[in-house]
Amino acid sequence: MKFTDVISPFLAWSRAAKKVDTIPYPTQPNPGADRYRGFHKNDSDKCIGCGSCAVICENKAIDMTKQDTVETSKGDSGLRPTVDYGRCCWCGLCIDVCSTGSLSLSNEYSWVTEDPNTCRYTPGIDKKPWDGNEKGFKQDNEVLGWAGSPREEMTIETPEQRIKNFDEVVKGYTVQQAMDEASRCIECGLCISACPAHMHIPDYLKAIAEGRFVDAVKLFYDNNPLPEMCGKVCTRECETVCAMGYQGEAIAIRWLKRFACEQFESLSEVLEAESKPGKPNGKKVAVVGAGPSGLSAAYYLSRKGYEVHVYDKLEQGGGVAWKAIPEYRLPESGLAKQMEVFKEAGVKLHYNKTISQKLLSELSEKFDAVYLAVGLQKPSSARIEGEDLPGVKPAFELLMKSPENSESLKGKTIVVVGGGNVAMDAARTCVRLGADVILSYRRRVEDMPADDEEIHEALEENIDFRVKTIPIRIEKTKTGIKYYYFEAKMVPNPKGGRPSPKPKDDVEHVIEADILYSAIGQTSDIEFIPESMQKEMKLKWGRIIVNDNQYTGYKNIFAGGDITPGAGDAISAIADGLRAVKGIEKSLK
């Protein structure tokens, strides 16, 4: 036995007289470092409930929970992350992937409580002492470089070159560009709720990112039978809520849809069985109007086994969307490829058929159901003196007459009145025909309903924007017209929304021009509906009010698209067609 073995017990007892070592925490402050990863914080107003934090957490420490204090909207799921500190390892991955940068970690780590339930809480909703602490771990996009990433830009023709012809302005993505752009998607799904047709956006973006273009096209056609058209002129509500747009640029969802369709010369061959008519069920449906809404209803009804006949007054399908949108935005070359899909699906197309009271009555008697998708046929009135003069024309009529094949307007001065896409299309068309163009709009540029890209490209093409100009009257001259207007001041709207334009003073300003094109909107013409039918329908401002199934209230007639109240764009019209299919099926079964 060693000597140390004998004295060891006595040495241990000697420590009994020694002062106990204690840690003064939590009675004294013991702060963490400035970048210490303490408890979670969340700016609930900035958070959109995308769920990226829950997906990335490998410990399953984060759940997305519905919060009564948060409203659900197209750009906000209404969910917020709830953290379980029994699972959290404070790795900070949830902070790194937060698309809006709302989530962070304070540098506080002390939390003394006797309530075991408090180890699970919802940052930003359940108020905590560290909410106001600015120190801690935050997202650093300069290091990460993903949340603020820019989109892959398409090649666009220069303004100097594009005004010389009607060639398509945007040239499209390369395969690598498309795959890189699609790979930016974090698959939060908020875009699905914003899309009127609720397309499977994250799924088809993933397919494009992985080079599965056939799969992407098949996903398009699950609830949109005009994907190439939408890939070029859709109002892209999906992009307005894209999680990647909060700190960087939204994913180019519209352009990627266009890209996938352009990879194939025949879409019907890609779709294979998905483009064939369904097993006949013995029911017949008439569709009036071969625009986006009518064609959508026709395609899906035919796929379900209905015998579908489409009637349209034009000489080809596609409606106003294809006829009136200029070639530089929507080339007609893509129309035949998409119309072939409808023929393969068994849709029977009847062109040059103008709808009348007699024809509508016959269709209602001969068919099990009728879907009206006739759009808006008449230009709206500006309600000013002189709008019926020879030098004043509807912009809509200019666009419907294939202006790229019309005579030159070189040297002429053209005034376009309006601020929507029709106004932009008319103005840019006249520039390509050689005219000097002045665009008059009552409000400010930021109030224009036209697509931002349309406005930007119009300004690049040297169109003279005269904003805050209120039309007064139009007078005829020997060579053209005089357009009189007041300068406007913007008066705030007490109910919110856009401010109202009011005359700044009583001084009249004038523009001398050769032609004035009015582009202040379209209105419906319901004279084709017999009075007996109108009595059983609910009509407002010349439009048909329908229920959630697009039913008009009369016998077997449904309606959708611009003839009913709505957003007035192609994707919303397509969504109406999808609802009409469900309504017709429910009615006939």
Largest sheet: 5 strands, parallel
Strand order of the largest sheet: 9-8-7-10-24
Q: Based on the coordinates given, report the CATH architecture of the largest domain.
A: 3-Layer(bba) Sandwich
CATH class group of the largest domain: Alpha Beta
Q: CATH topology of the largest domain, which one? A: FAD/NAD(P)-binding domain
Q: How many β-strand stretches?
A: 24
Q: pLDDT below 50 for ≥5 consecutive residues: which ranges?
A: none
Strand content: 15-25%
Number of alpha- plus pi-helical segments: 22
CATH superfamily of the largest domain: FAD/NAD(P)-binding domain
Which value, in Å, is the CA radius of gyration?
Answer: 31 Å
Q: Kindly, what is the distance between the CA atoms of the first and last residues, rounded to a whole number of angstroms?
A: 99 Å
Helix content: 25-40%
How many domains in all? 4
Q: Helix/strand/pairing class, anyone?
A: alpha/beta
**Shape annotation:** elongated
Q: Write down the overall mean pLDDT.
A: 92
Question: What does this protein look like?
Answer:
- With 589 residues, the chain is an alpha/beta fold.
- The protein folds into 4 domains: 40-144, Alpha-Beta Plaits (2-Layer Sandwich), CATH 3.30.70.3270; 159-271, Fumarate Reductase Iron-sulfur Protein, Chain B, domain 2 (Orthogonal Bundle); 281-377 and 525-588, FAD/NAD(P)-binding domain (3-Layer(bba) Sandwich), CATH 3.50.50.60; 379-451 and 458-522, 3-Layer(bba) Sandwich (FAD/NAD(P)-binding domain), CATH 3.50.50.
- Helix 19 links the parallel strand 13 (413-417) and strand 14.
- The longest helix is centred in the C-terminal third of the chain and has 19 residues, at 570-588.
- It is elongated, with a radius of gyration of 31 Å.
- The mean pLDDT is 92.
